[in-house]
Fold this sequence. Notes:
Layout: H1 7-17, H2 34-43, H3 49-62, H4 66-71, H5 74-81, H6 88-103, H7 110-114, H8 121-132, H9 141-150, H10 161-169, H11 175-179, H12 181-194, H13 213-217, E1 233-243, E2 249-253, E3 264-265, H14 278-281, E4 293-294, E5 298-302, E6 306-316, E7 326-329, H15 331-337, H16 340-350, E8 364-365, H17 367-372
Helix pairs in contact: 1-12, 2-8, 8-12, 9-10, 9-12
This protein binds a DNA duplex through helix 2, helix 3, helix 6, helix 8 and helix 9.
Domain HhH-GPD: 43-194
Protein name: Adenine DNA glycosylase
Organism: Muricoccus nepalensis
Amino acid sequence: MPDPPSAVPLLAWYDRHRRVLPWRVTGPPGSADPYRIWLSEVMLQQTTVATVGPRYDRFLGRFPDVAALAAAPWEEVAAEWAGLGYYARARNLHAAARAVVARGGFPDTEEGLRALPGIGAYTAAAVAAIAFGRPTVPVDGNVERVVARLLAIRDPLPGARRLIGPAAGRFMEQEAARTRPGDFVQALFDLGATICTPRRPACALCPWRDDCRARREGIQDGLPAKSPKAARGGRQGLHFLARDPAGRLLLRHRPPEGLLGGMLEIPGAPWREEPWELEEALPHAPLPGLSWTLRPGTAHHSFSHLDLEMRLAEAAAPDSPAPPGMTWMEPGAARAALPTAMRRLLALAEGPLAEGVGGVASGISGARGARRRGTLG
DNA sequence: AATTCGGGGTA
DNA sequence: TACCCAGAATT
């Protein structure tokens, strides 16, 4: 494996062109607030900078430090995270905050951070480098791409990680990188995000343009190679929205683990491959004896590994206590606390009755749009 | 090593 | 559409 290029031109480029981001503080290595760095890294897991920006500020406003987060009940954390996805991140964030408070502060080493829930190899290295100035290189999607191109690694991901990781770590053998570890790793992120992009990288602007083996060989567009991934399966759901005389909605707590774990949902029949008829789904209704009316149209939502299509039945319910595991909630609070798939289902109830009005782009289809895709038989 | 976890922006 | 995003945990 050849030596990685000099850190000096990358740091010089970073000093001129770095992105201005809410969690990015300027100061000497080790001066950053580890809570803020940690929160940003967790939010940024598989989530774009543009999405995280406003949510990060909102979250910090509500939970300004690790003690405030640790003291908060789970329901408040879940509602604040709603819509961001990968809800295990919120559960682990909450648990880790309590662990940090219990031990009297953040661990300041990679190994110590790695032991906290929700902190894997990447996040431990990122917090160690950015918040504590440790000489370690976190390997995210950006770094994988930059290193694979710099060294012209043709092996497909994810297998190529066994080559990319050690190669990336060798950057910290250089004095220039060790002097500014946090800046150096963020420079790698910025290079991957703005210059060494997945498609059509702007090699002419790259501080490493003369060091890059992929560019020299003209294969930068095809790197890193990736192994083919499995196709997404389809699922069908039928959900039941009950309103009490005060207009409140009956919601159900999902199990703490698994898909949308720990979040609220509109109760319904289990998702399966075949569509549900109202009659056969009735035993899964949250309250017995109600008169359910099926709404026109469907709400659809794609998760990472499955495409979900949901229909909605509605009923007026008498004033009654919520069944175990369920809760009555005002519509506004309900919408705020629900994950996106359920917000789309809820929008089906709030939307117009007329057909063909819902937008496909928003994940809601009227009867016409659904028929066009052949989903209504 | 392969799956299971969300959701949105982009070409 | 398909791909990608400052990945982690489980099997």
